[in-house]
Amino acid sequence: MKIHFLGLALLLSLLISCSSQKDSLIKIHTRHGDIFAILYDETPKHKENFIKLAEAGRFDSTEFHRIIDNFMIQGGDVFTKEGLPESEWYTIPAELGRGYVHEKGALAAARQSDHVNPEKRSSGCQFYIVEGRVYSEEELTTDIKGLQKQFMKYISLESQRALAEQYVQLYEEEKYDEMTELMLSKKEAIEDFLHVNLSKEMTEESIEAFTTVGGNPHLDEGGYTVFGKVIKGMDVVDKISEEKTAAMDRPVDPVYITVEVAKVPKKKITKEYGFEYPEE
């Protein structure tokens, strides 16, 4: 009896070991091509929920219904597709502080705004994929909102009339990136003159991500759960983001999706997709 028990324990141990050596590979199919992603073990509630919906086929025939070029593409509105009453639109507790940022390719959960959702709970179905852009270290370590506020005070000075005119001209020409560059170029002068500190802290890991891969760093300040990452198919995301849109950022031509889940050895995912798992 003892021998049988030890044999069963060994078998269970082997099964657990084999299971931990595999991961769920997500494939999102669109008319532009396929997007492949992995979901993080560090956000177990979101991972379990996404896989459950995908395996049940509930994502199929939903669409990327909100598209903003150079920002993100949002989809997976299962509840609306199925015509569920809002009372059945469940949410998931936020899983923040796991060390993941809104770099390009990040897979994150959509949610309602803070005034109706102070706990920052995630939608039970809607997700988005980050596109974004590459930032300079100066942009990342500057309180841009604070800089803009102080910059407006600064250019109201009679001595800064030429600077104010330059800023207005850029605004009229819709050269928004150059407006930001202009404000940043005056950061030190504004800090000295108005006796303010316009710097902010950011981790080295975040700076590395946003100055190389790119993304949307301000979303990290908003309290949205990042629970996965695109490991192949960002060219597809870029194509989708270029879709012509109408009201509410909805694409004129629907971008429908189907979602599949496959259990794949982690070593194969690393070899074929280049994703490196943390050491266990």
Describe the protein in words:
- The strands form two sheets. Strands 1-2-9-6-8-4-3-10 form an eight-stranded antiparallel beta barrel, surrounded by four helices. Strands 5-7 form a two-stranded antiparallel ribbon.
- The chain starts with a helix and ends in a 7-residue tail after the last helix.
- The chain is α+β, with helices and mostly antiparallel strands.
- It has helices at residues 2-20, 44-55, 78-81, 137-140, 144-154, 161-172, 176-185, 187-194, 204-212, 234-241, 266-273; strands at residues 22-30, 33-39, 62-68, 72-75, 91-92, 106-109, 122-123, 127-130, 226-232, 256-265.
- Helix 5 crosses helix 8 (187-194).
- The protein has two domains: 23-134 and 212-273, Cyclophilin-like (Cyclophilin), CATH 2.40.100; 142-194, no CATH class.
- The protein has eleven helices and ten strands.
- Provide the gyration radius in Å: 23 Å
Shape: globular
Total E-strand runs: 10
Helix and strand run: HEEHEEHEEEEHHHHHHEHEH
| CATH homologous superfamily (4th level) name of the largest domain | Cyclophilin-like
Q: Give the name of the CATH architecture of the largest domain.
A: Beta Barrel
Name the average pLDDT: 94
The fraction of residues assigned to DSSP E strands is 15-25%
Q: How is the largest sheet built, in terms of strand order?
A: 1-2-9-6-8-4-3-10
CATH class of the largest domain: Mainly Beta
Task: State the CATH topology of the largest domain.
Answer: Cyclophilin
Number of structural domains: 2
Number of helices: 11
Helical percentage? 25-40%
Enzyme class: isomerase
GO molecular function, one term: peptidyl-prolyl cis-trans isomerase activity
Signal peptide: 1-22
EC number: 5.2.1.8
